[in-house]
Amino acid sequence: MTTPSGLTSPFPSRRPAAAYDDLLARVLPQAREQRMWSPSDGPMPSLFVSHGAPFTLDDPQWLGDLFDWARSIPEPRAIVVVSAHWEQAPVAISGAAADIPVVQMSMPGLALTDYRAKAPGAAVAHPTADHFVPLLLAVGAADDPGSAVTAIDRMVMGNSTRSVQLT
Fold first, then answer.
1. CA spacing 20 to 30 A to 114: which of 11, 99, 126, 166?
2. Distance between CA 7 and CA 14 in Å, rounded?
3. How far is Cα 57 from Cα 82, in angstroms, rounded to an integer?
4. What is the pLDDT, as a whole number, of residue 112?
5. Which of helix, strand or coil describes residue 42?
6. CA separation (Å) from 106 to 113, 127, 137?
């Protein structure tokens, strides 16, 4: 498809977030059938979800990968989100009581780590810390940081969407 500016787009539609709308229409019945978490399942995993870049919301494969990943674990009773796009110290919290209650917490300042001095190559992979530090928070929230497994791993337009699950 060619965009109005004459550039070629890898996405099938010009409508913003069309892939997300298409996914919802296709999978909503399956999502309603997901098994709810119970204490016998043990702790829910800690997840680091990389979006690579904003345009992944229009990437049907990435959205399908996320849906498949979500179906591989029980439906949570609540979700805590720490976003790379909300950095504030002291920590701030917001919430919503939708189908599954969601609490969003601001990412604290970078007193968390000295990764740039300890890993000089990190500046190439992460020119800014905002998309790396949430991974450290997911590792810290896990019971077993050594349990990390890659759930999604591909490149989209030169951006990594590697996402990790920890128990």
1. 166
2. 12
3. 19
4. 53
5. coil
6. 17, 20, 11
CA distance 109 to 80: 18
Which amino acid does the sequence have at 162?
Answer: R
Asked if 80 and 140 count as a contact pair (C-beta separation under 8 A), the reply is no
Other beta carbons within 10 Å of 67: 16
Half-sphere exposure for 166 (CA within 13 Å, toward CB): 18
- What's the first-to-final CA gap in the chain, in angstroms? 41
Conformational region of residue 5, where left means phi above 0, alpha means psi within -120 to 50, and beta covers everything else: alpha
- Please provide the DSSP assignment of 102-144 as one string: EEEEEEP-GGG--HHHH-TTHHHH-SSGGGTHHHHHHHHHSS-
* Distance, CA of 107 to CA of 133 (rounded, Å): 8
Kindly give the parts of the chain with pLDDT less than 50.
none
- Are 138 and 46 spatial neighbours (Cβ–Cβ below 8 Å)? yes
pTM attached to this predicted model: 0.76
Q: What are the start-end ranges of the E strands in the chain?
A: 46-48, 79-87, 93-97, 101-107, 149-152, 155-156, 159-160, 163-166
